[in-house]
Amino acid sequence: MKIHVSSLNEYSFCPRCLYISHVLKIDPEPSRERSRGLVGHAVRKELSLRQAKLLEDIRDTDGIEILLLKELNSVLWDIPHIYKKMLQDIEIEDLIPEIRNEVVREIKTMNERLGIMIREIGIHDTLKRITPWRVEYSLESNRLGFSGRIDKVMKEDTYIPIEIKTGGVPESVWEGDRLQTCAYAMLLEEEFRLKKPIPFGYVEYTRVHERRPVMTTEQVRRRVINARDSIIGILDGKIPDICPHGSGRKCDACGYREKCYEI
Ligand code: SF4
Q: How far apart are CA 187 and CA 145, in angstroms?
């Protein structure tokens, strides 16, 4: 059995969520907040994936913001077609104006940060730093028991996985994102039969245009393996207790809440 790496994130949020969605095949309750989250995710992720290609022809800091704003319009047009499955039951048009306003503000931050980088290290090195070797790179390993699709892979001295996060920005890095990024590094090591470990990956927060490193220490790698084994147990039918994390706030924000408490 191969576990999809994204399940690590869901498991880390709540193992019972994973049981309800993957074993019972129940969808979360629809809500405006959830729809807004999904559309916002699609827009921000798409803009992030296109960013490096878009900036290829830039020679100085002038014009970056205009370029990104123009691309935002294309992204808003394209997402219903690209993310068709994810957005199939959502009235996208109702949500677009507020999401557009938010992303326009984020583009200003992106523009400022890119401008600083270009002034400090030059356009050539800026592009080198932000241009991925591959985007949406799929891979799997029988030995590791994982499959996954990495948002971006950088190629420097080694391969560096990047997980894009479009939601709120935590103080550090959420445990689920840490496990996911580490698992991608482990998959890349397997894929390319690397003798040396990939020492870190990044979580990229699109809202603030910031990449935070995730070290792939032995402890984190062990937590990845332990989580994988627990997920296998859940998919085999082991039902996690209600509120296994002990956080009522998580349950309050959970789309499975009503169903969860009935099971
Ligand atoms: S309501 Fe709470 S325990 Fe139930 S799935 Fe959601 S987060 Fe988990």
A: 9
Atom 2 of ligand 1, nearest CA residue: 251
Of 13, 10, 31, 30, nearest to 21 (Cα)?
A: 10
* CA-to-CA dists, residue 39 to 52, 96, 110, 141, 174, angstroms: 22, 8, 20, 31, 22
The minimum-distance atom of ligand 1 relative to the CA of 257 is 1
Q: With beta carbons less than 8 A apart as the criterion, state whether 156 and 129 touch.
A: no
Which residues are registered as beta bridge partners of 159? 155
pLDDT bucket at 246, cuts 50 / 70 / 90: confident
- Fold (CATH) for 3-26+133-262: Lambda Exonuclease; Chain A (3.90.320)
Dihedral Cα 185, 186, 191, 197, nearest 10 deg: 80
Domain ranges in the chain?
3-26+133-262, 32-130
Question: Best mutation site among 10, 11, 16 for ligand 1, i.e. most ligand atoms within 8 A of its Cβ?
Answer: 16
E strand or H helix at 155, and its extent? strand 146-155
Overall pTM > 0.85? yes
Ligand 1 atom having least distance to the Cα of 244: 3
Q: Which atom of ligand 1 is nearest to the CA of 241?
A: 3
pLDDT digits over 106-134, tens only? 999 888 888 888 889 988 888 888 889 99
Report the separation in Å between the CA atom of 207 and the middle of ligand 1, taken as the mean of its atom positions: 27
